[in-house]
């Protein structure tokens, strides 16, 4: 067998293997079988990386990525139970209930809700944590969930398929406009494969139905509009992005130096920035006004506050501080450390916002990537799907540490080997040690990565 025939054979084997792997993850895998998941994920990651480097034409790999996503179309997610809450929120909105004002645990005490078997299914499957807290999914997400319920009703699988289709459409938008942005900043188009062919994206977005890709799709549209100097349109899309998932709000201060880069006077750049922020604010206020009631502010604040005062999962620096706190105080100081680390992350964003007077679009991507990396390294909670945003930002830079992190974050699923979440400290330490070392090498020894 000659070299060309061997490569064709290997590519065929890789494609076939990926189809089998994703079918197994989507339809046969049990969440508690971590080492099987890790083996399947590692194989998928290595196989995908080989195909990315093998010289296969970009258009074929794009087709492959979406074909692999469609394998999950009729799969009921096993690795995450969040989608049950998505469907629950959609049901509430359609029935005329405000999803921000009603706890599932309280509604299930009423005859209207506990008499319906489908409601009981959603309630039981969403988990105790979700059932005892108000929804924190922003309005765009709520509209999508409501639209899905309006069509599918109590058909669980049809709800799943519809939500999955929304994510697939969002990923198509990421592809189309991501390629346009890569061309604009003179980076290879193949870099889009870091995101669309990545097993983390395929599993967490298409497989587990997490809504990050909708946020990212709008955000890529923002960046494309910024590259075209269409700032008002960009502001509207930024609002839609943050109204899908709130994370992109953290990047707003970073725009100041970008607006200064425009070929206008200082006064004009201030006017542009202010008009941008005003449009974002008005769109934001208008969307939330639809759900406004007397209890809204308190309920939403309490729900968001859980991320800083209660939630902890797959953290790095916070876990080190938590251990130190136990040594001195004898109990978990998350209420102090959570807020302190969040404030420190805010200071990092401010520093990135004003460290340079003017930045171009390329530098804006880098600042955003550093900002969200710093935020997650200081965060108390880093679920695997949270990394989709920094991963897509890395596509528009020459940094590769996010590719490494997108592989290693699967180690966090070891916590679900039993009914009670039990994190493995050794695996978390291994994950972050490798990530921090790779990040440090890229920053302090850029020549080793062909970057000056």
TrEMBL record:
GO MF term (any one): glycosyltransferase activity
Top-level taxon of the source organism: Bacteria
Transmembrane segments: 9-27, 33-51, 58-76, 156-179, 191-224, 236-258, 270-291, 328-352, 364-386, 398-416, 425-445
InterPro entries to which the protein is assigned, alphabetical: MptA/B-like (IPR049829)
GO cellular-component term (any): membrane
Membrane topology: Multi-pass membrane protein
Keyword Cell membrane applies: no
Keywords carried by this UniProt record: Glycosyltransferase, Membrane, Transferase, Transmembrane, Transmembrane helix
Keyword Transmembrane in record: yes
Main location (coarse class): membrane
Cellular localization per UniProt: Membrane
Family under the similarity heading: Belongs to the MptA/B family.
Descriptive protein name: Glycosyltransferase ArnT-like protein
Species of the source: Psychroflexus torquis (strain ATCC 700755 / CIP 106069 / ACAM 623)
